[in-house]
Design a protein that fits this description.
The two termini are 40 Å apart. Among the domains are: 56 residues, no CATH class; 142 residues, Umud Fragment, subunit A (Ribbon). Helix 4 crosses helix 6 and helix 11 runs antiparallel to helix 12. The longest helix has 19 residues. With 455 residues, it is of the alpha+beta class. It is 36% helix and 14% strand.
């Protein structure tokens, strides 16, 4: 690094023994050029000057990542993939030639892409040398891994050649989010129905999403182990979400084309019959509430720090859903409250409590309020697509069942939430408590799923 040094001292201030004899006619010129001179400061690896010197001249320095001399620096290391024996004896130029000329089946030369990545090649450099784009590289590598999982899952060997054609990678690539057993079932279904990549994508998404839909109307009629039933249920759901009756009928017809079990087929046919009556202008009496409609009770999602920022909070006893109605009735009740100091007295000792904001409907009946903890919110009597714990705040002071209410009742030793209309039809006149609101847990704002960029 170069820096400007200070001017030399005046010759008169230098001791005589250190002065050099110079001609008189050069003194003025040398003094004129002596006012500004340059010098070099060598910095060591840690940024400090070599050979002494002021340390306040050190510049901020971040050394680049280092690697052994015989290796290139690689910021990303893909997972190791075994290289076929036929390619291990080939040099770099020959391996690139195999990829460039597509010598062999796609799943045979796909491991070469991972091997080149481990040697320091990037997707762009591989594309420049072989002509295979980054997107296709990713597709080949992932599809080969899916194919290997089929082999390990004892997929029939005589069916594997179906995916050996040039379009095989696109089909297998869509199965990447399924487990090994689901991949085998989906691959067989794709072969039997001659699905294209778009159809395989729809099939894989329906199989992945089916377990999360537990609690939706009609879910019990479909079979999870059947790829056709999973796809039919996805189309069944889309028919119930369609606005135009023509779109509803079209989705149900598509569901009937792929449904496999008899119970699922009967459920789709029953829905088709209702849809056709509505299309013809006939009045249809479903005889059951629409599960897609929201209840009359508030469903709120808690926010991080909401309790700390609330002006008033409530301390409520918590009962698990497995405790039963007896535990719900025996949960402590508030007997005295000191508003000024925030002190609360209850009539008995309890171990589980929940601190919630002082919501108006709950604060009005705080003496009889209790919290029921449900392990899975999808069992609520309305559509809920997320698997998460929820807190049901209920009022034990109101137990008489009316059609417009939502109630906590006991079924087979467990506390469940049911609509008043359903309980009235069942002949139930009294519940364990009336639901005031449902609180869902906090959720991160950014829930995007990241993916690797290959192109």
């Amino acid at each position: 690094m170069l820096s400007v040094s200070h001017p030399h001292p005046h010759p008169a201030s230098i001791p005589a023994r250190h002065r050099r004899a110079v001609p008189h006619h050069n003194c003025r010129r040398r003094r004129r050029f002596a006012y500004v001179t340059t010098s070099a400061i060598l910095l060591g690896p840690d940024g400090s000057p070599i050979g002494g010197g002021p340390r306040n001249r050190k510049l901020p320095f971040t050394p680049p990542p280092t690697a052994p001399r015989d290796q290139l620096y690689q910021p990303f290391h893909p997972p190791p993939a075994p290289l076929p024996d036929r390619f291990r004896s080939l040099d770099l130029a020959q391996r690139l030639g195999v990829l460039r000329d597509r010598l062999g089946l796609w799943y045979e030369y796909a491991p070469l892409i991972s091997a080149l990545s481990r040697e320091g090649f990037t997707p762009s450099s591989i594309e420049e040398a072989t002509g295979i784009s980054g997107v296709e590289q990713n597709c080949l590598v992932v599809a080969s891994q899916v194919r290997d999982s089929l082999v390990s899952e004892d997929f029939p060997a005589d069916l594997l050649p179906y995916f050996d054609s040039y379009g095989g990678p696109e089909l297998l690539y869509e199965l990447r989010f399924l487990n090994a057993r689901q991949r085998a079932d989906a691959a067989r279904h794709a072969m039997d129905n001659r699905l294209e990549p778009k159809g395989v994508r729809e099939l894989a998404r329906s199989m992945k999403d089916f377990p999360r839909r537990r609690g939706d109307d009609g879910w019990d009629a479909f079979t999870r182990a059947s790829p056709g039933d999973c796809l039919a249920f996805a189309r069944f759901r889309q028919s119930r979400e369609a606005i135009a009756i023509e779109d509803c009928v079209a989705e149900l017809e598509r569901a009937l084309q792929v449904v496999e079990t008899e119970t699922a087929r009967a459920r789709v046919e029953r829905e088709m019959e209702k849809a056709k009556k509505k299309a013809a202008g006939e009045e249809v009496d479903d005889g059951e509430p629409d599960p897609a409609t929201r209840p009359d009770v508030p469903v709120v999602r808690l926010m991080y720090g909401e309790v700390a920022d609330a002006s008033t909070v409530l301390l409520l006893p918590v009962v698990r859903e497995t405790d039963g109605a007896e535990a719900l009735a025996l949960a402590p009740r508030r007997t005295k409250t000191d508003v000024d100091l925030g002190l609360v007295e209850v009539d008995k000792v309890w171990t589980r409590w929940a601190v919630v904001p002082g919501w108006g409907p709950v604060a009005e009946v705080a003496d009889e309020a209790v919290v029921v903890e449900l392990a899975d919110g999808r069992i609520l009597p309305w559509r809920s697509a997320e698997e998460e714990r929820v807190l049901v705040v209920a009022n034990r002071g109101r137990r008489e069942v009316v059609e417009e209410g939502i109630y906590v009742v006991e079924k087979e030793g467990r506390l469940v939430v049911e609509k008043g209309r359903t309980l009235v039809e069942m002949g139930v006149g009294e519940a364990a408590a009336e639901v005031l609101l449902v609180a869902r847990p906090p959720k991160e704002v950014d829930d995007m799923i990241s993916d690797d960029e290959w192109d």
